[in-house]
Amino acid sequence: MSDKRTDIINATLKVTNEFGFAGTSTDMIAKVANVGKGTIYKYFKSKEVLYSTLFDELTNKFMAFIVNHFQFNLDIQTNFRNIVYALVHYYIANPQEFRYLERYSDVSLNIDQRMDESTKLIEPIKKMMDELDHGFKFKQLPPLAIFAMTYGPLVAIVNLTLMGKIDLTDELIYEIADSCWKSILVK
Amino acid sequence: MSDKRTDIINATLKVTNEFGFAGTSTDMIAKVANVGKGTIYKYFKSKEVLYSTLFDELTNKFMAFIVNHFQFNLDIQTNFRNIVYALVHYYIANPQEFRYLERYSDVSLNIDQRMDESTKLIEPIKKMMDELDHGFKFKQLPPLAIFAMTYGPLVAIVNLTLMGKIDLTDELIYEIADSCWKSILVK
Amino acid sequence: MSDKRTDIINATLKVTNEFGFAGTSTDMIAKVANVGKGTIYKYFKSKEVLYSTLFDELTNKFMAFIVNHFQFNLDIQTNFRNIVYALVHYYIANPQEFRYLERYSDVSLNIDQRMDESTKLIEPIKKMMDELDHGFKFKQLPPLAIFAMTYGPLVAIVNLTLMGKIDLTDELIYEIADSCWKSILVK
Amino acid sequence: MSDKRTDIINATLKVTNEFGFAGTSTDMIAKVANVGKGTIYKYFKSKEVLYSTLFDELTNKFMAFIVNHFQFNLDIQTNFRNIVYALVHYYIANPQEFRYLERYSDVSLNIDQRMDESTKLIEPIKKMMDELDHGFKFKQLPPLAIFAMTYGPLVAIVNLTLMGKIDLTDELIYEIADSCWKSILVK
DNA sequence: TATGAATGAGAGTTCATTCAT
DNA sequence: AATGAATGAACTCTCATTCAT
Fold first, then answer.
1. Nearest alpha-carbon partner for D55 in D8, D83, D22, D97
2. CB of C4 under 7 A from strand F?
3. CA separation (Å) from D35 to B39, D12, D26, D43, D45?
4. C24 touches strand E (CB under 7 A)
5. For residue B136, is pLDDT > 90?
6. Which residue of C has its CA nearest to D163?
7. Do A151 and B156 touch (CB under 8 A)?
8. How far apart are the C-alpha atoms of A3 and A7, rounded to whole Å?
9. CATH class, A1-44 region
10. pLDDT single digits (tens) B106-121
11. C141 interaction partners in chain D (CB closer than 8 Å)
12. In sequence order, which ranges of B26-142 are alpha helices (DSSP H)?
């Protein structure tokens, strides 16, 4: 049995990926979701709400994925490596989710809001790191700067892979992970 | 004396920054540029052409800026540092241009095209590095991966600065520049 | 109960008659049809399609009218008279349809297409005449020339009547029908 | 030395023929006439006035052509034949003028006005016939009906010829002229 | 006199949203 | 609950006309 709300969410992900936010109409979503146009408005107050709801769901799903990969019995560097690895693979395996998250910020324009979105992604990780008693000394950079120095290249790498411009190997992923790690440590 | 074409270009930069590509209408551009709606079409065949023309102009302006900062009497690492420094400052000083370049690639959907756009930005730099006889050994990564590992963090840093989330110091810029540099070198 | 599609078609016929094809806007059609502007596009892909659809419908309606008046038990000359009679009366009774058909061919510019349109009107009649075994010998003119010699005066007569310049009597119609008939026969 | 007014008139004839009244813009006329857009408005108050002026000029030119072909020393039937012949050849030789006259009535919508236009064409001919003392007895039809019965087929024939659908021979022209003549005479 | 840059009303069309069924 | 016909505001773009040069 199919759940119409889920059908709509999935259709939105699919259609926005193929045609962009600008090129997506409720008509198309309804058609792909196999529901009536009005049904969308039974579950979501507006198109905008539908978009932001999907963003929230993807963010949460992604966060849960990361958190679930953290292993408390391993040291933090290994965890970093592992998480980077998992993250990259998650994005590669779910390109539509990746693109949606990437593009969404251009739709929800308000800058403060954009920050909140980035924060949603990084905050829990940062928290975990702060709370752990590890032996590493991070640079005296603002936490978000550290985020920028790790998340930035990952996004770029995933993008290049999805465009078919580079051949992603596990080796490359670990190479990048280590580079990033080093870049945020005090020498 | 005001040049209408310039007025339109400036208005487009301003309005798209404030309201996003989706939220920008020719009406708004015309009003902000203080020209008639029809005048836009005297200078640009369509809204899309206006957008892409602005993108090209910003890209060229930016490239010229970078190239002008390259000093052949200095070694490549110092040039890298200087260019990163100049680039970050340029973006911080011209946030609207930065945002426009960032967002435009997300609006023009075609993936191959997006690649071409990224390439426009990196190609000349890459060329310069290849042609120079420097003593550094870069990692055996695809050139675009190296680009990702340097350009990615910069964009992130600029974003965070523009959001007011981090306080950008020259020290921080050089810190990042050096980290990036190290991350692409063979250890 | 009103059918919106029909309302739109009727409004189009009415408005184009009053203001011509050039002077008719979708706004006016929508207003006269008492529907939203968007409703037009639910039923017709474009204004042009709306116009051509109306043309086709009028052509078919007209053809059906003629064919229904053909009586196989009567000789061909009597049928000719009757059909001319019916045709003229049909046009006089439906001046808007007549004007629409007249004007449409001048609006749709393509010459070959115009021919097809004229052909649509004459072809079935010509066919009927060819297939019947009648005793008349028509002049060795191209069939379309014969058409021109019969249809041309009828159109002119209807036009003059609609303009109120001549008083159309049944007598006059038959007079013209007979003249036409004679003009295409071998003496 | 070229006269700009004439250039504009000629350009209008040419462009409206190729693209129809709806598809013709002042821009195109100006370009073809090799004058500035504003110049058109120096000579004609508006586009509409330009169109109607051209119509009037063509009408007058055509009328003069006909009148000049009337030979008072010949009997009226021969004159009729000759005029039909000249008329058809004039149209064939000047298809742009023919088409302009044909199409113009769809642009100037007002029905009374249309009448005036038809009248312009036939009035002088009618006058000439009335004033002459010839031996023929025309049917007791309204003069315009007689016109319809002669002018109608001619227009149709010219149209078919210009479309390349029939091969116009002098023989055919005379055949039609005679048919028309007979059709308006009392038997 | 001649121009064409500039204009803005108005064109055709789309689409998020509503609501009667 | 589910629908999709209906809507009209808002969009991009055109073009007859004006007017400073």
1. D97
2. yes
3. 21, 12, 11, 12, 16
4. yes
5. no
6. C111
7. yes
8. 6
9. mainly alpha
10. 665 544 444 455 555 5
11. 172, 175
12. 26-33, 37-43, 47-69, 76-93, 95-107, 111-131
Structure tokens that stand for B25 in this block = 């209408």
- Name residue, tokens 């052949």: B72
Q: How far is CA C91 from CA B40, C16, C100, D110, in A?
A: 49, 17, 11, 19
**pLDDT tens, residue by residue, B44-78:** 999 999 999 999 999 888 888 878 888 888 888 88
Nearest alpha-carbon partner for D183 in D148, D157, D155, D156 = D148
The identity of residue A25, as a single letter, is S
- The CA-atom distances, in angstroms, between C49 and each of A96, C9, C40, C60 are 38, 11, 11, 16
Q: Is C149's CB within 8 Å of D176's CB?
A: yes
Task: Return the higher-pLDDT residue of A50 and D179.
Answer: A50
Superfamily of domain D55-183: Tetracycline Repressor, domain 2 (1.10.357.10)
List the domain boundaries for chain A.
1-44, 55-183
> Buried (b) or exposed (e) across C141-157, using 16+ Cβ within 10 A?
bbbbbbbbbbbbbbbbb
- B155·A160 Cβ contact <8 A: no
* Residue D62 and residue D117 in contact, taking contact as beta carbons nearer than 8 Å: no
**Backbone dihedral angles phi then psi of residue D132, each to the nearest 5 degrees:** -85, 150
C-alpha span between D168 and D152 (Å, rounded): 17
Amino acid at C163: M
Grade residue A112 by pLDDT with cuts at 50, 70 and 90. very low
Task: Name the residue type at position C40.
Answer: I
Residue C101 tokens, joined: 């058909």
Report the nearest residue to nucleotide F15, CA vs C1'. D25
Model pLDDT for residues D137-177, shown as the tens digit of each residue: 776 666 667 767 777 778 878 887 887 878 888 988 888 88
